[in-house]
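Milestone 3.1: sequence recovery, worked example.
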């Protein structure tokens, strides 16, 4: 019963992130509208780095010449420094996803700020630069954090719930059904099914004329 309750809570929190769908879709489509003649999409990966699956993912992205955006948990950065350095060296965007994956709007603001700053410090220690972009866990943010944190928030508009379904075919199918020009796809580089689905989506969308960009390129004014 306890496991069911926890699962339901996680699922409910994930749904909260969808509240920003319309705004982010509009912003992305404004930046890369149909009149450009091109189609752009951003693959984003949360909750890493994972010592096993992030490595496989980076190898596959390099082989395909694709750049992605990684929103890292600070608690995993120190033990996976080589992966973080490789992300930067190979042109991927590295962003902040808090230190312990807390719901930033549900904890005292000082605790939330500490979660963010501690992660920024961990990433800067490895890469030499503090990240400019943050994806708040579950998309949860508030006005107090806006006043304290000078970072760009990144939400999403395609979410296949890869962490829940754990099925390559279903994850890839959801993305292919919902993707459009300007999509920001939410994935997690902690599961083999996600990595496999990402490669399938990349290969298919590239054949359809899509270009993969990092979120800073997609959301540029």
């Amino acid at each position: 019963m306890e496991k069911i309750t926890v699962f339901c809570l996680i699922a409910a929190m994930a749904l909260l992130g969808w509240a920003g769908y319309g705004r982010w879709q509009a912003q992305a489509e404004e930046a890369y509208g149909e009149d450009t003649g091109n189609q752009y999409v951003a693959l984003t990966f949360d909750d890493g780095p994972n010592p096993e699956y992030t490595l496989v993912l980076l190898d596959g992205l390099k082989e395909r010449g694709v750049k992605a955006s990684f929103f890292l948990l600070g608690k995993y950065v120190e033990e996976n420094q080589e992966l973080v350095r490789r992300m930067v060296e190979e042109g991927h965007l590295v962003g902040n996803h808090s230190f312990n994956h807390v719901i930033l709007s549900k904890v005292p603001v000082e605790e939330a700020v500490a979660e963010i700053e501690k992660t920024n410090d961990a990433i800067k220690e490895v890469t030499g630069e503090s990240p400019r972009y943050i994806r708040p866990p579950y998309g949860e943010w508030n006005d107090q954090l806006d006043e304290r944190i000078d970072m760009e928030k990144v939400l999403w508009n395609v979410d296949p719930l890869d962490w829940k379904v754990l099925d390559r075919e279903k994850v890839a199918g959801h993305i292919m059904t919902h993707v459009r020009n300007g999509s920001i796809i939410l994935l997690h580089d902690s599961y083999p099914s996600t990595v496999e689905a990402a490669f399938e989506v990349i290969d298919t969308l590239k054949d359809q004329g899509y270009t993969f960009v990092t979120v800073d390129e997609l959301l540029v004014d």
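Confidence is low (pLDDT under 50) at residues 1-29, 31-35. The chain has one domain: 2-218.
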